[in-house]
């Protein structure tokens, strides 16, 4: 099951690269904020349909959850605006490796301290080396 989830995450990452490639030209045509809005509008409509047909009706109310858990709703559009602005200038590969570097760094911190209710996973040498290699990839792509 874990292997299947890892493959699914890899496919999701590929989708983010496609999204970055699409957002740049769309932002150039309709404006960066309109491109961001279109991505979230289509995503919200699709998610609504999925919830309507597949979500259990007995789940707790969305509004009863702690406010900090809704922070992703703020972070998502910021991420997409950054992609829309940066991808046409620095390239999709540079954007994705930069995002990956930021994600891995912050993920190591979140895991290490068990933030946001996650389990604690200590930062060890292997995890640090993974971050170093991602930063090296960022430097190599930047030179190219």
From TrEMBL:
Residue ranges that the Swiss-Prot or TrEMBL entry lists as coiled coil: none
Domain of life: Bacteria
The organism of origin for this protein: Pseudescherichia vulneris NBRC 102420
GO cellular component: plasma membrane
InterPro entries to which the protein is assigned, alphabetical: YdcZ
TM segment ranges: 30-54, 74-105, 125-142
Keyword vocabulary terms for this entry: Membrane, Transmembrane, Transmembrane helix
Full protein name: DMT family transporter
């Amino acid at each position: 099951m874990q292997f299947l989830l890892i493959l699914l995450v890899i496919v999701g990452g590929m989708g983010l690269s496609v999204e970055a490639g699409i957002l740049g030209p769309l932002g150039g045509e309709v404006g960066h904020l309109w491109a961001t809005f279109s991505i979230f509008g289509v995503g919200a409509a699709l998610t609504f349909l999925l919830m309507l047909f597949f979500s259990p009706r007995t789940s707790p109310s969305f509004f009863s959850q702690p406010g900090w858990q809704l922070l992703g709703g703020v972070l998502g559009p910021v991420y997409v605006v950054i992609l829309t602005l940066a991808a046409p200038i620095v390239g999709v590969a540079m954007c994705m490796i930069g995002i990956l570097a930021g994600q891995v760094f912050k993920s190591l911190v979140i895991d290490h301290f068990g933030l946001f209710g996650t389990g604690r996973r200590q930062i060890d040498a292997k995890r640090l080396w993974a971050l170093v290699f991602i930063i090296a990839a960022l430097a190599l792509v930047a030179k190219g």
